[in-house]
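Recap from last week: sequence in, structure out.
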Amino acid sequence: MKCNASKVSEGNTKRSLSCDDECARLERNRKLALALNIDPAAHQDDHVPYSAETLRMFRENSKWAQAQEREFRVFAADQAEKRLRFKPMPSHQRAFLRSLADDFGLDSESMDPEPHRHVAVFKTPRFVMAPMKTLAECVRIRQNAEAAAASAIEEQRRLRSNNEAYNAFLLTHPRFGLTVEELRSDLSVQLEATPGLAFDISFLPSEEIVIKGKPASASTSISPSSIEAAVKALKTAIASTISAKRLASSCQLCTLDSSLNILRRELDMSGNTDGWSRVAAKAAAPRSAPQQLGVGEKSVYTVLGSRLKEAKKKKEEVEKAKVDEPVIDDWEEEVRREEEQSLEAVDQDTSLGNHPASNDDLLDVNAMTNT
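Predicted structure tokens:
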């Protein structure tokens, strides 16, 4: 029932609330989202409007970055301001400002040479409004997401480390156009070798094939350990047939539940199969006797190593010089001071008699030369 409404009085049914500033802001955002085809639900909860690079640099110096973000938000909220110029600062801080400007939808540009190089930010037609979430809020959202992902990975590892018995074969990257009938025909000898055990062949949504062992009939009872022993005994023969006929790229043991979800893979228990483990698994390179160098000869590796060491040392010296170079806050005052020093140097040269040669002097020299 409406407030104050009754059978004889309409109460507040025909009254409407006046729209205040907050109401007007929400209405503008609604119309803007409708015009730009933006789903407001997608920009809530866990949505992060900043790039991963911006968040990484924010974490490195969050206190300083929050101060710069406040300047961005004040600039974005002021409709009269079209340009924002920051004081000179090191290159890594300028990189954060330019990355943050891109996330805000602003244009940015680095101006002037070092050590007066600074960032200027401009409003262009592509700028709409500042992100509704702050950098600190997005960092917390990303940390929560990373924690949830780590928890999911730990849960997967826990499932992998279980001791459930293998009961199926898993074929990865099967041949294009391979059917269940063709696979059963090619593996008929191996699949029928164990009495009392039958196999079901199924395709998974991941484009993998599973061959699951089960009792041949409802009256037959086979323990999980017996099924595991049977599939382990058949694996070598089945893997050889699959490789010879190129039915799939690999064959491994796995554990399936009643819904054909993979609970355990054989390769998951062998650790990391990439990186150094894969290199070490291959045959070692043949050994050869070391060659004896003549007197006074240097190994090519020694020469290259010394050159690389010198180049690295020079690079470190250049980087150290850049770091030690002071950053001047008031660069305009510094430029004015350098110009005054240049003028004073010219005045000193003039007072010592070092006048620049005039056109008349040049003519007299040319006349004497011709004579």
